[in-house]
Amino acid sequence: MNKIAVICNSDSLAFPTVQALASKGLLGGVAILERSSKALLKPLQAMGLSGNQILQLNYGSWEQELKQWMTGLDAEAVWVFGFPWMIPDHLLQSVRKGYLNFHFGELPKYRGADPIFWQIRNNEPYASLTVHQMTANIDGGPIVWTKQLPIIKGENYGLLCQRLGFLAVEAVNELLNNTQYLPIVNENSLANTAWEKKPGNKELAINWREQSADEIECLINAANSKYDGATAWIKNTEVRILEGSPAEIQLPEGVMPEPGTIVYADALYGLIVACLENRFLKINILHMREGYFSGSKLFQMGIKAGEKFINLN
């Protein structure tokens, strides 16, 4: 049986499938971005891949590099995990069974970049893996396989990536044997579906005046670990909050602190912050330039009740 080539830019999402293909003797090789080689190269070599089985793609010359490599592999299909560059049609048509994209979000709802972030950020009950044939219409080709995975309450980005990576292995046998596609995504639905972008500084910043406690917790989880947490400011210092959890606290009757105000701080429980609708969030772990700290450690460093996390906009 002809081999499958894999293009990836993520170890947790792609490597379980890479190992599954290798165990079946079906792995032709793995292409990675040269800029990601520090994280991905040694684990691939540890799996036993060597020589022309690993290709490092360089921006500016990757199309020619990929074309030459694929010619040598004689692979019948290419499976893609998190590749950031648009693959031209002549490459998509160059292998017999084409290119399949493993998109870790529901289509067409979560077209575009980093659907894992947006599914956690939007407090979705499920994350989806959608495998589809790649065409010139990005994230719009025929769907081959799809499955949902419940998101665990409080689950962060890194943990969900690990579970989705193992979910992808469930698709391997069906994809190897399946020749029938599910109905193609309706073109009108694609046209009316927003394109998600990679979150930037604005999307990663906590807005204490507008976001609820649940929304803030979801943002924190979505930003941990890939984006080093959700951004907040206190004492003119930027911090990245990596973990928060709901907190119950009784304040004096009639006291309604402004969202973002630290309403409780001590060495045992750490920091508890007021949110909208008289709800509260406990700050468990955050990152500053000086290191990673618990809420309790910040209290010991001088952060007191009454101080405020602020919005910059």
From TrEMBL:
GO terms for molecular function: methionyl-tRNA formyltransferase activity. InterPro entries: Formyl_trans_C, Formyl_transf_N, Formyl_transf_N_sf, Formyl_transferase-like_C_sf. Residues 203-288 form the Formyl transferase C-terminal domain. It holds the Pfam family Formyl_trans_C. It comes from the Bacteria. Residues 61-171 form the Formyl transferase N-terminal domain. This is Formyltransferase family protein. It comes from Pedobacter sp. KACC 23697. The lineage of its organism: Bacteria, Pseudomonadati, Bacteroidota, Sphingobacteriia, Sphingobacteriales.
